[in-house]
Specification:
By secondary structure, the chain is an alpha+beta fold. Helix content is 42%, strand content 16%. The chain is elongated and about 75 Å long. It starts with 23 loop residues before the first helix and ends with a helix.
């Protein structure tokens, strides 16, 4: 009936139009629990309150309008709890069907990303996550998060991309900052590799040549801002990071005692390099345990090693007595288990692509021996040029690259030293732990 108890006639309208109507959530819940036919909500007449549901929906509204609002709410709660609808409530989807739907959404996400339908991919991914969480299928979420990370980056939602990147490890656990940092580095490298493989941008753009802003740089920036990365998005050591150490790409050479020692012997050291037999200079990046893979090189890059991870290369030291004497007076050059001391030779028209060193436990000093014009090194966001006979000091845990655009080779004496903020006892503990690990590996 469309006549209310006051006899006023009005057209049938949704129950929620009344200021005394039950909560919309309750109405919707009842509609889901009951079978709806036209304007009627049909429920079991055997229930005490079934008379409210056996009449058209408007009559239900009219009845409730004449009740105190609190009583109306209580009534709806009772009905929902007791379940008055005829027939059995619809069961939720099984975990098997939910899993199949999630797999389907994941597949559709991949297709959407390939088709550059980034917003569609995000919508599909968020739906898949919601289903997985509601069904406690947490094992399915890492793959979804990984695709969501790519989609979020495409939409420049970098904070969301970082959260998905870290969640793709294992959303069921609270991972630590270092694990998150390494995962983000890994994902960043995957992004660069994918960019190069797809070929949508030049390799130089993908890798961030010239400024270090590679395709994953926004991810690193957001991670640093959220405290899940190093303090600087440029600092990306692939092995160990100590956040407490002062982080800056370039250091003032005058801070270090070895600077005067190296510069005062620059001419003699340079002459020793020029006098080396041809066989002494070997291709860099090929010795076991080298930080820098030879695949980083465009052109030619070679070296003459004097110390490698705290171990002498006696034959080369014997060829360069002045250099050997100088290095003996730099204790870190001999004791640094994460570093080297060597002549580094970059061939004409060659470059070392953007990369980072193993750890911020160390700094790197370059004594310029042969530096023709057209040579430079970028560390972080700043590029500098060598000056003949002078020392540059930088933190190679920051992204850096080397360029030789000249017709001649460029030569520097590279010496790794401990970070100046590391106390002696910390250095001794690090060295002891490293030696123990090396010995165990050797014995195995």
């Amino acid at each position: 009936s469309n006549e209310d108890r006051r006899g006023a006639h009005h057209p049938a309208v949704p129950c929620t139009d009344s200021p005394f109507a039950p909560p919309p959530v309750a109405v919707e819940a009842i509609r889901r629990r009951c079978s709806v036919t036209g304007a009627s909500i049909v429920c079991s007449p055997s229930f005490l309150f079934s008379r409210f549901f056996c009449e058209p929906a408007l009559e239900l509204r009219t009845t409730l309008e004449n009740m105190p609002s609190t009583l109306a709410v209580v009534l709806f709660v009772v009905l929902l709890v007791c379940g008055v609808c005829e027939g059995k409530p619809r069961k939720g989807p099984s975990s098997t069907s939910t899993k199949q739907r999630i797999e389907q959404l994941h597949s559709q996400m991949s297709q959407a990303l390939v088709a550059s339908q980034t917003e569609v991919a995000v919508s599909l991914g968020e739906e898949a996550l919601s289903l997985a969480e509601s069904a406690s299928l947490h094992q399915l979420t890492p793959r979804i998060h990984k695709l969501l990370m790519v989609a979020y980056i495409g939409l420049e939602r970098f904070d969301d991309a970082v959260l998905s990147a870290t969640a793709s490890v294992d959303v069921s656990t609270d991972i630590g900052k270092e694990e998150a940092r390494r995962k983000i580095l890994e994902l960043g490298k995957e992004m660069v590799a994918s960019c190069i493989e797809v070929g949508s941008s030049s390799r130089e753009t993908c890798e961030g040549r010239g400024d270090g802003n590679n395709i994953a740089f926004p991810l690193y920036e957001a991670a640093a801002r959220l405290g899940r990365f190093a303090a600087s998005p440029y600092q990306r050591p692939f092995a160990l990071l100590e956040p407490a150490l002062l982080a800056q790409p370039w250091w003032d050479p005058s801070m270090f005692e070895f600077t005067e020692l190296l510069e005062s012997n620059a001419d003699a050291i340079r002459q020793e390099f020029l006098n080396l037999p041809l066989g002494a200079v070997r291709a860099a990046g090929t010795r076991q345990g080298n930080d820098h893979d030879s695949a980083l090189v465009d052109g030619s890059w070679s070296e003459v090693v004097f110390y490698h991870r705290g171990k002498q290369v006696a034959a080369n030291l014997a060829l360069c007595p002045v250099t050997a004497s100088v290095l003996e007076r730099i204790p870190a050059a001999q004791s640094l288990v994460f570093g080297q001391a060597h002549f580094s030779v970059m061939g004409a028209h060659s470059s070392l692509r953007p990369h980072s060193g193993a750890t911020n436990y160390r700094l790197t000093a370059h004594l310029a021996l042969v530096v023709p014009r057209g040579n430079s090194i970028r560390v972080g966001g700043e590029r500098r040029e060598w000056q003949q006979g002078k020392v540059l000091v930088f933190d190679d845990s920051f992204d850096h690259e080397v360029t030789n655009e000249s017709e001649e080779e460029r030569v520097v004496l590279l010496v790794n030293v401990w970070h100046p903020q590391l106390p002696t006892e910390a250095i001794q503990a690090i060295a002891a732990q490293y030696n123990q690990m090396t010995e165990q590996t050797f014995n195995e």
